[in-house]
Amino acid sequence: GILTTLSQSNGKYKYDYATVPFLAEVFKLIISSVFLWRECKKLPPPKMTTDWKTVRLFPIPSVIYLIHNNVQFATLMYVDTSTYQIMGNLKIVTTGILFRLFLKKKLSNLQWMAIILLAVGTTMSQVKGCGEASCDSLFSAPIQGYMLGILSACLSALAGVYTEFLMKQNNDSLYWQNVQLYTFGAIFNMARLVVDDFRAGYEKGPWWQRLFNGYSITTWMVVLNLGSTGLLVSWLMKYADNIVKVYSTSMAMLLTMVLSVFLFNFKPTLQ
Question: What CA–CA distance (Å, rounded) separates 99 from 122?
Fold first, then answer.
């Protein structure tokens, strides 16, 4: 969130933010392919399921992540990074519910209590204090930002739970599963760029000619951060679970607030 906000100029993106998820998918695909190649040189070779019944499931999370990544960029045009980080914690709530419904995993009473407290805390943190000068709006950011933030949290939880289901349905190599996931991810993100060109009437030329237009060092850091995070998350999906992932992500909230104070002059309130 912080890097994405830093990559903006006067609240807008100088680059086409749809290219960032595409490049992140390509980065993850290259890294996973290299590790898979190294794994294939060892004995015994890694297990790789290639039947269509298994492969056809991988495009689904790729589409969800495609939508989520673009919603994330749109959300940060309305809310600050600390608000986005706090709202992102709502995915713990949705993850807990999806965990119970789809993966049939039970959470302890303590975990459910923590989820409820988190939901209440997230809501309260965004309500304006009674002593604030402006009372025109109950919340501290445009309603569009909250709607997009909630959508982003729900999409993240849905993609995470479904990806965990895929990763743990068999004993295939993690890198082989990643190659499938990121191949479809790159294809769908490229398709999004083609559709954007078509809708714009190719006024700015084909997407590959302006792929890096407006890019800065910060933008490249966004790409690398998004790609590296994706690789780490896939490891957690395979060997841990979504609850571990979302709670570890929520720990970044305090760090985000501290950095926002110094970088964006963010002023935290009692909420």
Answer: 20
| pLDDT tens column, 184-235 | 999 999 999 999 899 888 888 889 988 999 999 999 999 998 999 889 888 8
Alpha helices in 127-241 (DSSP H): 143-168, 174-199, 217-239
**DSSP for 136-161, written as a single string:** S-SBSS-HHHHHHHHHHHHHHHHHHH
C-alpha to C-alpha distance for 228 and 30, rounded to whole angstroms: 12
Tokens, residue 165: 């289901």
The whole-angstrom separation of Cα 241 and Cα 238 is 7
The angle formed by the CA atoms of residues 36, 39 and 43, to the nearest 5 degrees, is 150
What pLDDT, in 10s, does the model give residues 242-260? 666 666 665 565 555 566 5
Nearest Cα neighbor of 179 from 65, 55, 22, 41 is 55
